Amino acid sequence: MNKKLVSLFILSGLLLPSLSYGQAGVNTISSGDTAWMLMATALVMLMTPAGLALFYGGLTRSKSVLNTIGMSYIAFCVGTLAWVIIGYSLAFEGSGSIIGTLDNVLLRNIEITDVKGTIPSILFVAFQGTFAAIAVAIVSGSIIERVKFSTWIIFALLWVVFIYSPVAHWVWGGGFLSNDGELDFAGGTVIHINAGVAGLVVAYLLGKRKDFSVTNAKPASIKLTVLGSALLWFGWFGFNAGSELAADFIAANALMVTNVAACAGGIVWLIIEWYDAKKPTLIGSASGVVSGLVAITPAAGYVDVTGALCIGLLGGLVGYLGAVKLKKMLGYDDSLDAFGIHGLVGILGAVLTGVFANPAINKAAGLLYGNPGQVLIQLKAVAVTIIFSAIGTFIVFKVSALLTRGARVNEVVEYKGLDKMIHGEKGFDLHEEVIQNEVIKN
Length: 442
Hints:
The chain has one domain (31-428): Ammonium transporter fold. The chain is 69% helix and 1% strand. The chain is built from 17 helices and 2 strands. A hairpin with a 2-residue loop joins β1 (115-116) and β2 (119-120).
């Protein structure tokens, strides 16, 4: 065979992964970007039924730890189904300023060979679906140990469709906040402010736990909480760096600044708590890490390491003040601090994105780089999201409660624990193990 033909054949094989799928002229996919986004989607998936579930579960009292884990676990299932059935279409299909269309219900009209940027469209749907699922799962932290499981399932479904999807469309789907120029790289507005405010609303609607002001509720397992925070941290690299939708310089920077902000948040919470309460706790450090991660989320694709350090430090500070001081002062029972860590810190992160956005990273300029107007744009997005989430969540929760004849478990179930009374299971069978050991010894 002619050597030139052999060389041409080999070169064609090497170039094959970059050729387009479908007809000539359509967008081409990048095998590198696609491989990265497959991994990023798996990382974000890990955050909800594993990371958040363990983080929340460890903080809950032992009699309701499985129920708390189950709320995150089932939220991922319900959120994913709501997303592929109708949520994605409302969020990303169409160019309306308020809401999308129904053209992609059940992913209709999305072919397996369709391309979004440089990745398959179906992969983009899956990636965004993991965001919708974790958003509603975050809300569960505000109402654990007292809400009916049936109410929670209905609420999760309705909230993803009617609250999450519209906000996602406003910011990422071509809606009015996107047109205004709001910067939200990975979900500070769409996820954290939205879910944090929703958590506060449902906490007030459901009321405090019966023994909220009487019992000093001890976490079931600090080890689970620390492990959960580590899994969240790990998954957050896919959360933030994956939001670039490509394996490039901005994704690499997003991963770096995410890690810096997380470390800064964990350290500042630890130091403040050490000074204030005289004890440096691992729960505090883990909560600080999550606060730093929340704060950097909207800014990850726009700021440098210096900006990330400032955002992480302030995120840890605000997280501590919100979760420890503000909750104690106002007396609301946001059980696992969804509002303090996600809502308040999410607001901080959104505003600081308008301050620290560096045009050398991703062309967008903030206050420190000569564009003070960006802060006003960010504040508008924050205000709109708070108002919509508060009113919308109120309605959705009331409907969910109506459909389940009340949202709250009775006092007996609450006192004995939701694990045994609702699920017929126990998170820790320590008493039975002690008895068995004594029998063996004798």
